[in-house]
Structure formats: structure tokens, C-alpha cells
Amino acid sequence: MAKSNEISFDSEMYSVKKTNKFVSALIYVGLVVWLLIDLFPLYYLFTFSLKSTEEITGTNVIGLPKEWLWSNYLRVFKIGKKVGASQVRLFFANGGLERSFANSILVAGLTILICLVAALMATYAITRIVWKGAQTLNSIFMLGITIPMHVALYPIYVSFSKMGILKSYWSLIIPYAAFSLSMAIMVCTGFMNDIPKELDESACIDGCGTWGTFTNIICPLMKPALATMGIYIFLQCWNEFMFASVFSDEAHYTLPVFVSNLKGSNITDWGLVGAGLVLATFPMLLVYVFMSRKIQESFMVGAVKG
Amino acid sequence: MHKKNKPIIVLLFLLPALVLFIGILIWPIIASVHHSLYQYPTFSDPGEFVGFKNYIDLFNKQYDFGKAVINALILAALSVFIQLPLALGLALMLGKGIKGERFYLSVYFTPVLISAVVIGMLWEKIYNPIYGIVVKGAAALNMSDVIPPEGLLGNPKTALLAVFIPTIWQYVGYHMLLMYAGIKGVSPELREAAMLDGATDGQVNRYVIIPIIKPIIKISIIFAITGSLKSYDLIKVFAKDAYDCSYKVPSLLLVRYAFHNAGGIASAIAVIMIIMCFGFAILVNWMFKERDLYGKK
């Protein structure tokens, strides 16, 4: 992307057709319109999360709240908790917002760890060790990108319930890690092919074994790939709903499941629902403000490298 | 590395990935095919062997799977023919290099990061037939009769469209980002050379940029189609009852039957979904293959 700055050319010197003023104005109008379309629902969500039911339903539909009702937010924290427990017990009580937040982070963190370790080791075996069938195995792994996660739901449910790990963190972590694996191997392969093979050879001459080369030479150089993939997997786990809603109980609810439960109980209490949605969404958006480039990159790398 | 040890070392390195891949991806496919030939009234009891009866029954009135497939295909078509051109248009406008490019890009991408559950619940409020902003907006413009009284989501004629709008809203940014990355990867010399030859912006886009980013457009199309075929989260939030809803899709029925004592039917849906996803991926790949000298693919 830096390239475009290096080569500049003076449009005055050549007979280049300049972009029509009218057209470029139209482009800006188009861009701004889509900008507003993107932001308006979020603005609407944020404002109704702070309004009373009367304001939402009639007196003030799209304006800023007349009275900023932060109490809507406090009420969200009370949902799903056993009343009367001590503060410490509250956090670990079933189903509260903080609890599902913590669950989401735990599940995503362990998924990233397991998936990346498995992917790194497999990629090493495929790209760095010469053996018959490495390419075939790689293309079999790549088929995994097209397999929809939904089809595994019923068989995995049956076998997890037989193994007794249903309604535990593992019942989410294992499928998430497996379904991110193909993408992770693909991205790691791209990055690992860019590491010169001479590094392995010199490590070998210096007496480094296969495992030593892998942990001391390759792994440190793969950090950028791991960061990119880690972000991608994190977002996939963070937003996953189908497995999370079927495989977990109150104690293991992740954030999307907690949010979906707001729906049944409080159909008329929009302020409460809005506050719950904002609390579930805006922390992620805040992270995005500071890491937008890195996050965008993590979504691009899979498609562009493939 | 000793030659003798090599197979063992390779196997050890592959072991974690193979266990995950075979246990969670490959085996469930085989199990689904197997389950789909039985009744499976409960999770532990396969019940009677019924052969392909589940596949035939699926299209009966009782299960109404045909409607779900048609809905998924309509969503896929809308994605490819409305969402992707919109994304391409935005990417071309941004990729040309304009003021505030990064800002627009970042805002357009924001909805991608939001959970589809949140988006579903938000849009459900937006569509609410009494208090929602769509109804209020229509009333303010004196166009109340355009909106059906049961709301866009409640009316069978408009429901699928009402499902599609939040989907575009969420994913245009994703496809735009992929295409933007591709456009930025096009060497600027090519654009300049074309412009020196007197090409207009439109011609540069049509004859230089789009042909070069074809591989990315192909991936976007595959993602858009398979994404539509397996759409679940948003629709699950909208749907009150999976069966009795005018915008049902295959995965919604899959989950419903899996947990309503019809594991065989659910497995048959799973098998059909895999075949559809692979089928479309192969079809799109084939369509994008370069023709050879004889005009054959």
C-alpha cells in the first residue's frame, strides 16, 4: 500500500481524463449515505438504551434521551442472578452478565490456544518435513473451510452427552477449535512458506533437533501469523450462537446466549434490552477503535492468501 | 533427523490437528450420513432402519424442507446480486484513494464485529409493528399503508426481505474489505498506464481493476452463498417458532428436529446442507475458471 505513494505522476503533463467533478461529488454522497446507514442503527440502539418506555414508544422516538436513564444498565446486571447472595457469590452465580462475559473470554482464550498449537504443529509437519502425502493432507485440511459447522451439531451433541462433557466449557471449546483449524492451517502455511528453509538447516547443523527447531526457530518467527489468527478466532468464538445456545447451561452461557435470553422476559422493557445489547457490544467496538487495522487484517488474510 | 524416526515425528506433529479434524469434522459427516438412514427417536436409540425415507419425508408437508431450501437460495441470490455489487461499488470508490479513506473503511466494517444475535434483537425493535422506527418513519412520511399492519417481519410477503436487510447491513462491510484489499494490491502502474491511454475511471475499473481482483470476487461469492445457506443466528432470533415461520431456513429446521425426537430427519438435513455447500463452492470455482484457447473451461 506504500507503493502508491512512491510513484506519483503529474496529471498536468499528460492528457489524462480527469474525474468529472459531478461524479466525484456523487461518490462522496454515496459514501456518506452508506456511512449514515451504518451508524444510524447503532445510534438508535444507544439512545433507546437510555430512555424510558414512554419516550421510546411515543414521545421521543429518535431524539437524544430527555433524561439519561443509566438505571437501565444497572438493571441488566441483576438479570439471571440469585437475589440476596453476597457480592462475591453474585459474580459466580448462574447466568449473570459478568459471568457470561467471563465465560466468553475463557472459551475464546482456550480455543485460540488449542487451535493455534494444533495448527502450528500440523503446518510444520506439512511444510517443513518432506514426506509423501503432505500436499494431499493439506488439501484435505482445506476442505474443512467449506464444511458448515451446523452439520456437526447433532452427532457431536450425541457423542458429547455420552462422554459426559455436555454443558461444560469443553463442549464449546473443542468444536470451536476444530472448526477454526482449517483456516488457521491455511494462514500459517502462507506465513511459514515465507520463512527461509536455510534457517532450519543451520539450526540442524548446530545440533538442534526437530522439536528444538520448531519451538526455538519457527514459533518465534510465526508471531505475526499467530496474532492475526488469534484475533480472527477470538471474534468467531465471541459471536458464535448456535453451539453456545444448544450446548451450554446457565453457568456456561456465553455473551450471545445471555443476550438472546433478554428477549423472552422483557418484551416491553426496551430500555433494559437496549442496555443489555449495548453492554454486550460496545466493549468490542471500543477495542476495535484502537486496533482497527489489526482486526481488519485478520479478516483479510484468510481470503486473500487463499 | 534419522530416517527411521521420521514417520513417528510427522505423526506426532500432526496428532493434535488430526484428532480435532477427524473427531469433529470428518466423523460427524460420516455419522450424519449413517444417522440419516435411521429414525433416531431419542439420542441413544437409533430406532428402525428406514433407508432413504427421511430424505423423501423431508419434502412432505409435515417437514416442509423444500420451503426452507428455497428461502436459503433466495437469500443467497440476494446476497450475490445485491450485497456484493454494493460492496464492490464501495470498495472501488474507496480504493481509488480519497480523503478519509481509512475512516470510511473502518466504519463500514464495524457491523461485522457485532454478534448476529445483537443485530437480530436490534432490528426486531426497528421492525416492531407498533413502536418500531420503520412504522414511525412511514407514518411521518404519510406512507403508513406501505407497511403491513403486522410489521415487515410478521407479513409472509415481506418477511424474507426483512431478514435480508440486516444481513446486508452487517456483511457489506466484510465483502467490501476483501475487495478493497484486492484493489489496493493492484499495481498503481497499471492504473496509470490505462489512464495515460485515455481510459476513464469507469473504464479503468471495468477493464483493469475488476479482472485483476476476480479471484477475490470469487471467494466473496462463495462466502456469500455458503453463508446464506447456513444462516441461523439472525433468523433464530427473529423466529418465534422455527416451523411456523415464513422465513425458515435449513439450519433452523435442523436444530428444531434434532431436539424434537427426529434425529434422522435432522441428519438428513445436515447431509443435504453439506452437499449444497460443496456443490456451490465447486460450481462457482468452475464458473471462474479461465477459458482455454478453444473456449472450453
Report on this model:
- The complex is a heterodimer of chains A (306) and B (297).
- Chain A is mainly alpha-helical.
- Chain A has 15 helices and no strands.
- In chain A, helix 6 runs parallel beside helix 9 and helix 9 (170-193) runs antiparallel to helix 12 (223-239).
- In chain B, helix 1 packs across helix 14 (263-287), helix 3 runs parallel beside helix 8 and helix 9 packs antiparallel against helix 10 (201-212).
- The mean pLDDT of chain B is 88.
- Chain B is an all-alpha fold.
- Chain B is globular, with a radius of gyration of 24 Å.
- In chain B, 69% of the residues lie in helices and 0% in strands.
- Chain B has one domain (24-119, 146-287): MetI-like (MetI-like fold), CATH 1.10.3720.10.
- Chains A and B meet through helix 2, helix 3, helix 6, helix 8 and helix 9 of A and helix 1, helix 3, helix 4, helix 5 and helix 8 of B.
What is shown here, in short?
With 306 residues, chain A is mostly helical. Helix content of chain A is 72%, strand content 0%.
Give short descriptive properties of this protein.
heterodimer; A: 306 residues; mainly alpha; MetI-like fold; 72% helix; globular; B: 297 residues; 14 helices; 0% strand
